[in-house]
């Protein structure tokens, strides 16, 4: 019999939930601030939200080290974009860049589950949702991460977005007002925290609209 | 799957150190670790320094593979030296050193050749306190108090209860001693030879090793099965 010894995996799941909701003239992006490994909480105050451009904000859960590397790669690419084009990248452009960046590592993926929220060129709210290898879709609202299985059906029920099969295509943006959307985000995080052990401590909410960007925090259960 | 004998990578650790515990306090950072170096479950070395000062503003504590830690110290020596050779009066602070370590650890995991450590980096520069952690796969964060390994299970609940921003040096040392005592009782690879070090704006101080007072005379320590019906 060979000796059993410590082994390692290049991946870990650090948990966390991310939500984004697009409205006619705003976008709300939110994520909790807990970082876990297994049954351990590593820290209760880690931001999963990164501002990639003036009008593009990404919330990411999954493996923290990969998420950090992804954020650094994207901001480096955005810096080059600014030097070459003398402007900020649009949210749909950043969405495509994020997809390409994820797919570039298709065979040793970034274990990162992202939602990208922002305002498009018409100032309309937009949300893009991804898997770890870069397939993505523009939607009206989305949730990713450990609490997404609890959050998505609740958002489906509350927001009743038009089917993407409808012709002519209907706008996917939600009919809620900005304050209603923020309240909904607070509700879904309070609810997910009740059942998902990887979600909790605090929720960080970023609101993008015509007048710029604003941040809000709400305390969550700490158990 | 490559054979272990052909491998040039660390597939498992050989000589390891156990937990490191560190906290922010009023004037800087306090860090504690014992001096044991385990070879599997054998206590192989008993005077391993697992906390070292880095540059002018930082302290580095390590658990995990001791040789990998010593390799990391060589990287950092080079980093600090080359930074110093600019002779521009700038110096790397704890934030920069931590970020460097973060990239080294993550880069090595990407090559499937990890440095088998959990590192704690604490420091203070221009009155700005900093305390962070990195592990062998590159997970990293900052907090007011951190602990590696079993310390994360056993001592962080104590720290979450008792830590506050304005701990004096004496209170901080007392809190760390409480944590190290719990580890000594409950972590089988912990030894009763402990080093505490501090870093303030005045620089780093490594205090000489000391032992904790312990009490083993509880009746259920001496006779743990007394009163357990049906046991011999």
UniProtKB/TrEMBL annotation, chain A:
It is found in: Cytoplasm; Nucleus. GO terms for biological process: proteolysis involved in protein catabolic process. GO terms for cellular component: cytoplasm; nucleus; proteasome core complex. Keywords: Cytoplasm, Nucleus, Proteasome. It comes from the Eukaryota. It holds the Pfam family Proteasome. Its main location: cytoplasm. Belongs to the peptidase T1B family. Component of the proteasome complex. Component of the proteasome, a multicatalytic proteinase complex which is characterized by its ability to cleave peptides with Arg, Phe, Tyr, Leu, and Glu adjacent to the leaving group at neutral or slightly basic pH. The proteasome has an ATP-dependent proteolytic activity. Non-catalytic component of the proteasome, a multicatalytic proteinase complex which is characterized by its ability to cleave peptides with Arg, Phe, Tyr, Leu, and Glu adjacent to the leaving group at neutral or slightly basic pH. The proteasome has an ATP-dependent proteolytic activity. This is Proteasome subunit beta. It comes from Clitoria ternatea.
Automatic annotation (TrEMBL), chain B:
Keywords: Cytoplasm, Nucleus, Proteasome. CDD domains: proteasome_beta_type_4. InterPro entries: Ntn_hydrolases_N, Proteasome_alpha, Proteasome_beta4, Proteasome_bsu_CS, Proteasome_sua/b, Proteasome_suB-type. Pfam families: Proteasome. It is found in: Cytoplasm; Nucleus. GO terms for biological process: proteolysis involved in protein catabolic process. GO terms for cellular component: cytoplasm; nucleus; proteasome core complex, beta-subunit complex. Belongs to the peptidase T1B family. Non-catalytic component of the proteasome. Component of the 20S core complex of the 26S proteasome. The 26S proteasome is composed of a core protease (CP), known as the 20S proteasome, capped at one or both ends by the 19S regulatory particle (RP/PA700). The 20S proteasome core is composed of 28 subunits that are arranged in four stacked rings, resulting in a barrel-shaped structure. The two end rings are each formed by seven alpha subunits, and the two central rings are each formed by seven beta subunits. The catalytic chamber with the active sites is on the inside of the barrel. This is Proteasome subunit beta.
